[in-house]
Amino acid sequence: xxxxxxxxxxxxxxxxxxxxxxxxxxxxxxxxxxxxxxxxxxxxxxxxxxx
Length: 51
Known about the structure:
The chain contains two helices and no strands. By secondary structure, it is mainly α.
């Protein structure tokens, strides 16, 4: 995606990711970490999202 490349260049990074919302970015991050860290336990409570 062109915007991701432009943002990465702007910040001197190899790559960048854009998400449609904070919810989607958190969901993706937790899913990725859970899949990559064997035995990981992720705790969540009812107040970790917008109402």
